[in-house]
């Protein structure tokens, strides 16, 4: 049993259809438990007060924003090398989700920083990198909509994703250099899950799991939609020829 | 509601924005899924009728 | 290869080729800035390196959407793709031609325009140097964007959206060189990064661009 079996659209639809109810249930469960636990049953931080509660939405969203792009990179490579449509359609489905996660990370990051910085936005290296990532997502989606031929769109957006990944990596370090010099620490120190005390870490891990499952659920639904849309385009093209 | 103290507006607006964005995303994914599913069914029905 | 380069240079410098357009745009932009931020000399001086870099960057964008479009419209691009010369080399030559007619003139004229913005004299050679080192990357990255959008009718705006985020690292290091030059500080580190990015893009992006053009020619 190899993962490449799911490259077959029919097999993917069958399997994802069976998995979907579980994915939905688990993501709702983990999200609820994580966020309720974090919001209602954790203490305040002595430095940051109750704003520490923002960690349960900011950190998972930020992680998903980056991991969604990572997933798009891998699936785009698989498309370019092995030409499995399911792979590139999964990348296309993941993009709006990653983009929304980036927006959540930006908004919650800015709101969280406001009491500390005294302004609604600061060109903090992390937030700046997420702003650039948001622009990359926008470009990727814009290119998909601009190209009419679906296979050409798949190829071009995959190339863009790969080139974009290299530049996203470059930008991360360029932005660090630009704001703080190359080797200083993160500004929102609560960002690193490892440095967080246990009482905050446990609900944080549950929330992260919830966001991951939410991403998986939405990508499954989205990919199924894209597979259906592609089938519809093929049928409509055949109709025109008759 | 826990006592959020002076940061109540901050925390609540962060959670509020997140909820709004995530709900909008879920709505977009689900509505598009339904629309495409229905449209495909229509096209497939036409295809089987015309053979 | 040389023949191709010379041909593109000739095309760019003749009337309607867009050669003067970028320089004029750069001038107009630099003229507009004081109207936007006020004429106070100190403030202009402090933002001058950055404004000049952003201005050169935007001016360099102007002629990009036509980089492959003209050849695509009359079928030359298809011939170039199937010619014995590798498409990657064709792409690199086009990017270099673009740089010679856009980036390099912008780099040379920037210190002069810097006078309008109270740019410190010490910064002028560093500004020109950083632009000369960074604009080849802008041309090559722009060529990549042009390759992605070559088939599209209104591709120019999409090209800007795709390409501007990719410009960020070059802009950061280039402007930093100019700023440090103005203060008399050491410019070695950002200059090294700037050069590395330029060399890296020139070496690797022709492959991605050629791939994109082949997709668009299908």
Low-confidence stretches of chain C at least 5 residues in length (pLDDT < 50)? Answer: none
The SSE string of chain C, one letter per element, is HHHHHHHHH
Major interchain interface with per-chain residue totals? A-B, 37 and 33 residues
The assembly state of the depicted protein chains is: heterotrimer
Structure notes:
The complex is a heterotrimer of chains A (242), B (51) and C (218). Chain A has helices at residues 9-40, 55-82, 85-117, 125-146, 150-180, 198-241. Chain A is mainly α. The longest helix of chain A has 44 residues, at 198-241. Chain A is globular, with a radius of gyration of 20 Å. Chain A starts with 8 loop residues before the first helix and ends with a helix. Chain B has 51 residues and is mainly alpha-helical. The model of chain B has no long low-confidence stretch (mean pLDDT 91). Chain C is mainly alpha-helical and 218 residues long. Classes of the chains: A mainly alpha (242), B mainly alpha (51), C mainly alpha (218).
Distinctive features:
heterotrimer, B: 51 residues, mainly alpha, 1 helix, 84% helix, C: 218 residues, 9 helices
Helix-strand layout with pairing:
The complex is a heterotrimer of chains A (242), B (51) and C (218).
Chain A: H1 9-40, H2 55-82, H3 85-117, H4 125-146, H5 150-180, H6 198-241
Helix pairs in contact in A: 1-6, 2-3, 2-5, 2-6, 3-4, 3-6, 4-5
Chain B: H1 8-50
Chain C: H1 2-13, H2 19-37, H3 41-61, H4 69-73, H5 76-82, H6 87-116, H7 123-148, H8 155-183, H9 188-217
Summarize the structure.
The complex is a heterotrimer of chains A (242), B (51) and C (218). With 242 residues, chain A is an all-alpha fold. In chain A, 79% of the residues lie in helices and 0% in strands.
């Amino acid at each position: 049993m190899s993962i490449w079996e799911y490259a077959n659209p029919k097999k993917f639809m069958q399997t994802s259809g069976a998995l979907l109810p579980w994915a939905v249930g688990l993501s709702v469960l983990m999200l609820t438990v994580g966020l309720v636990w974090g919001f209602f049953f954790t203490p305040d931080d002595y430095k940051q007060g109750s704003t520490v509660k923002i960690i349960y939405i900011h950190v998972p969203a930020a992680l998903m924003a980056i991991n969604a792009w990572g997933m798009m990179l891998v699936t785009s490579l698989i498309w370019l090398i092995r030409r499995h449509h399911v792979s590139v359609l999964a990348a296309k489905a993941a993009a709006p989700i990653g983009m929304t996660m980036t927006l959540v990370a930006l908004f919650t990051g800015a709101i969280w920083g406001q009491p500390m910085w005294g302004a609604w936005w600061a060109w903090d290296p992390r937030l700046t990198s997420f702003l650039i990532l948001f622009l990359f997502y926008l470009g990727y989606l814009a290119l998909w909509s601009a190209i009419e031929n679906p296979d050409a769109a798949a190829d071009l957006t995959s190339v863009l994703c790969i080139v974009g990944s290299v530049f996203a990596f470059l930008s991360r370090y360029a932005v660090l250099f630009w704001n703080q010099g190359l080797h200083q620490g993160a500004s929102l120190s609560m960002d690193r899950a490892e440095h967080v005390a246990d009482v905050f870490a446990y609900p944080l891990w549950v929330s992260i799991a919830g966001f991951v499952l939410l991403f998986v659920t939405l990508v499954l639904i989205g990919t199924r939609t894209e597979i259906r849309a592609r089938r519809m385009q093929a049928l409509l093209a055949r109709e025109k020829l008759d | 509601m826990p006592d959020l103290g002076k940061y109540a507006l901050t925390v609540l607006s962060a959670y509020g924005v997140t909820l709004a964005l995530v709900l909008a995303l879920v709505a977009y994914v689900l509505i598009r899924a339904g629309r495409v599913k229905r449209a495909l069914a229509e096209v497939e029905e036409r295809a089987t009728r015309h053979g | 290869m040389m023949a191709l380069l010379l041909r593109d240079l000739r095309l760019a410098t003749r009337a309607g080729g867009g050669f003067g357009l970028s320089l004029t745009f750069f001038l107009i932009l630099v003229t507009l800035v004081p109207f936007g931020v006020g004429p106070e000399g100190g403030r202009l001086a402090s933002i001058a390196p950055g404004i000049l870099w952003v201005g050169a960057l935007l001016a360099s964008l102007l002629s990009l959407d036509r980089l492959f479009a003209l050849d695509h419209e009359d079928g030359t691009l298809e011939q170039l793709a199937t010619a014995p010369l590798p498409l990657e080399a064709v792409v690199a030559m086009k990017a270099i031609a673009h740089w010679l007619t856009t980036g390099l003139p912008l780099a040379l004229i920037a210190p002069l325009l810097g006078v309008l913005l109270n740019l410190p004299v010490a910064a002028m050679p560093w500004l020109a140097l950083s632009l000369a080192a960074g604009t080849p990357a802008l041309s090559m990255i722009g060529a990549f964007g042009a390759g992605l959008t070559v088939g599209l009718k209104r591709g120019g705006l999409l090209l800007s959206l795709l390409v501007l985020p990719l410009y960020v690292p070059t802009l950061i290091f280039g402007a930093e060189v100019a700023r440090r030059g103005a203060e008399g500080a050491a410019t070695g580190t950002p200059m090294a990064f700037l050069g590395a990015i330029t060399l890296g893009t020139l070496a690797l992006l022709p492959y991605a661009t050629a791939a994109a053009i082949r997709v668009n020619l299908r």
